[in-house]
Design brief:
By secondary structure, this protein is α/β, with parallel strands linked by helices. It has a single domain, classed as Rossmann fold. It has four helices and seven strands; from the N terminus they run E-H-E-E-E-E-H-E-H-E-H. The strands form two sheets. The chain has a five-stranded parallel β-sheet with strand order 2-1-5-6-7, sandwiched between helices. Strands 3-4 form a two-stranded antiparallel ribbon. Strand 1, helix 1 and strand 2 form a beta-alpha-beta unit. The chain starts with a strand and ends with a helix.
Length: about 120
Amino acid sequence: MTKPTVAIIGASADPAKFSNKSLRAHVQAGYDVFPVNPKEAAIEGLKCYKSVLDIPVALDRVSLYLPPPVGVKVLDDIAKKGCKELWVNPGAESPELIQKAEQLRLNAIYACSYMNAAGQ
């Protein structure tokens, strides 16, 4: 049986940030985790990818931790890559982002993926 996969877009090396907590919670929950951050080589020992399009596997989940103006710009790449679920974390949503996610027919969930992965 293969592990579920998740890309954490906007992953941070700072353990105090929710994108880092989410990364660690997904690892603990049994996911294969793919951090996306063009400025980092690795986070928590996992190879970082510059874009979601660079990830070499199909994705079950994409978790978005970017400010809304930046998040809107990566939605096209997320749609091209494909995923079963797009988790838009608190603070990453905006009316424009919600509208574009709907236009791209992404299965967007507006909730905290960290809390979901941590089982809370």
